[in-house]
Amino acid sequence: MSASETNPSEVAFGHMPILEPLLPPTAADTQHPQPPRHRVPSSNTDLAGAAVASAHGNITRLVKSRVKHWTATFTIVDWISVFIPAAGWLSKYKWDKWLTADLIAGITVGIMAVPEAISYANLAGLPSEFGMTATLVPCIIYALFGSSRQLAVGPVAMMCLLLSSGMIDNIDGQYDNEDPNRPANPEAQHAYNTAAIQISLIAGLMFLAAGALHLGFLTQFLSHSVISGFATGASRVPDSSVKYFLGVEISRHWSVVGTTEAILRHEPEWEWQEAAMGLTFLAIVVTMKHFGRQKKKWAWMRSAGPLLVTVLGIASVWAFGLDKKGIKTVGKVEAGLPRIYVQRWFPLHDPQPKVLTAGIITLVALMESIAVAKTLADRNNYSISPNRELVGLGMANAAGAVFGACPVSGSFSRSAVSNDSGARTGLTAVFTGALVAFVMAFIMPVFALLPMNVLAAIITASLFSNLEISESTYLFKINKLDWVVWMTSFLGTVFLGVEIGLSLAIGLALLLVIYESAFPGVPILGRLPESTIYRNKDQYPNAEVDDRVTVMRIDAPIYFANVEYILDFVRSGHQKEQDPDDESCAILATEGLRFLVIDMSAVTYIDTAGLRGLEALLGILQANDIQLLLANPSHVVMTMMDSSGLTDLIGREHLFVEVHDAVQHAHEDIERISMELRNRPQAPRAGSISLHGRPSIEYLNKMI
């Protein structure tokens, strides 16, 4: 068949057949045939159902074929790696090339992790062995189940802060022990330790449940503004560090006001020796971290800072007997490998505050860990799985709860050191754990001489890295709404506490998302000169518009929250930022308007309220002798429209693939009716009818 003999209904656009109007041709159609239009095909619901029914009959053969393919393609190692990802990279491990790099990186991270573990345990109000256990067990377990090759999992300052703030007033008995290693109230410390283990277990179960349900996508709902403001607010120097800088005994407070009042109240007791030592050690750590970030060849300084001040502090106490001159030290620390603490999991007294604390820890730990893991994966040209990260962190926290550890997360500083040291696989974590185990078994008593002001310096330097004050300035300049979210998160965390501050910020961020989707952009489009491209006429002033054919685009899904706004815009033409008393932009008020073309390319979804809204819009337009044309609706939208019968109401002949096709159709219809008027001078019967019927005198006069 030649091109001239081709049936228009069989002409294809891409692989989609064009569905021409199933209407009898009029005289005008015969005299002036229209060229084929690129119209939207049916969603083919019936055909899809038939295909499913046909496939159902062959389901057994299909399953057998798949199983045969899987057994022939995947090895035993591949199947094991589905549940334990470490099996995959261990089977392909290049021992001659990677072992040395992983060993060096593991030892480097271990040297950095030991003093940090003791510091963070103190920050959480827990004995030193809790921090060491959190560094030993979870990092190895995560290496088996996680997807990141460089992420260093263990105790971090933020998690310990959240744990401390969540438990101060929510344990059996009043906790007021200044030194967790030498508690004045052993019973209260025992209850506190038990609560920490239970929170680690709950956090681990939350991670595992989220991983099983594939909820890794939920991280997308926590904006950067929320996390940045929260991290900055929570990173204020805590009272547990301040008291060791000043050498005073103060009770734990979470609020800034309470901590400040307690410090000023004990002003006569300030010890300048403690302050001098602590600030000196702080300056050393901050300086070395700063230079370690400047050049790659100085990267070793980032991990050496905590180790250096630890050695200097222990040496100073040992050489000059500073512990006998008022300088507070860690005190007695028991040597030995981790013990089993499963017996402390139950009973779970007063579970509500523990579940709340575990939930916040899970949320923040997930955000921080995935952010760090993604960054390192991008640098090393591989990808991570958010759901696999959930499982890895869940197993790490659950294992930590078995052996008595505080909640853990991915550490940015130790992960960066691991990457800079050349870590290639999770075997790095095994070497880190081995070093920590050696220290716990043989060297731990040496840390009894470690000054508490050294721990305060390490904690404070770590928290400084979480401060993102410059982010506030950037957001204020770029997006005021994001800045409001940041300030809400920051101020709420500082003055109202972690739970309230974070909840307020998340709630506000979600409200802003709803607000933006409830008032979407509905720009009027114009045709760029000498092209078939249609763009926002406010953005492109030279875009050509035709008062007879208005083209508008809906820049959002159409659902219950925004459908009324869209209808109001068509009726009044008012965007949310425009003056509602200005009627000059009303679409329906446009003189001579005969066609409304809606570009549906940005409409990814439509619900039942949106369908009813389009049906109402169709009625409004028909009452004003205006024809509705839709351009480029997605398959999801077409399926909903077909199922609801809206396609038939609009008419499939009024659905087009491109905006330009719809506009051409409108112009040709206007021209056809004008020609029909010239060829039929007699007056037609009264009444205003459809564009595709016999038009009334009033209608044709307005058309011309």
From TrEMBL:
It is found in: Membrane. Gene3D superfamilies: STAS domain (3.30.750.24). It is a multi-pass membrane protein. SUPFAM superfamilies: SpoIIaa-like (SSF52091). It comes from the Eukaryota. The chain crosses the membrane at residues 70-91, 103-123, 130-146, 152-171, 192-215, 304-322, 355-377, 389-410, 430-463, 484-515. Pfam families: STAS, Sulfate_transp. This is STAS domain-containing protein. It comes from Apatococcus fuscideae. The lineage of its organism: Eukaryota, Viridiplantae, Chlorophyta, core chlorophytes, Trebouxiophyceae.
